[in-house]
Amino acid sequence: MEQTERWMADYLAQASETERMQLLGAIGNLMIADDTVSPEEHTLLDDYYTLMAGIPARPEAAPNLVKGVGQFFRRVAKAVGGR
Fold it and tell me: Can you spell out the DSSP letters for 11-46?
């Protein structure tokens, strides 16, 4: 999980705002594929948007990016796993 968190933080730090928003759209499309958006899925989308909004223009100046991405992905894993 830690390595995945680092990879995602690296990707998000290098992605443009447009790319991050496209990823948000793709995640949203995946969540609505079953024609139902649960409250948990809605919260995850909101959390992802908040995470993306917190990435500054110079992500290398954001030392907590890996921590924020890690917390987000642990919540996703918990929601998907039903734990």
Answer: HHHHS-HHHHHHHHHHHHHHHTTTS---HHHHHHHH
Closest CA to 14 of 55, 43, 51, 50: 55
Which two structure tokens, joined as six digits, stand for 44? 């995850």
Q: Which residue type, as a one-letter code, is found at position 36?
A: T
Non-local CB neighbours of 62 within 8 Å, separated by 6+ positions: 13, 54, 55, 56
The pTM assigned to this predicted structure is 0.58
Nearest to 40 by CA among 2, 1, 78: 78
pLDDT tens profile 28-47:
888 788 888 888 888 888 88
Contact 69, 5 (CB under 8 A): yes
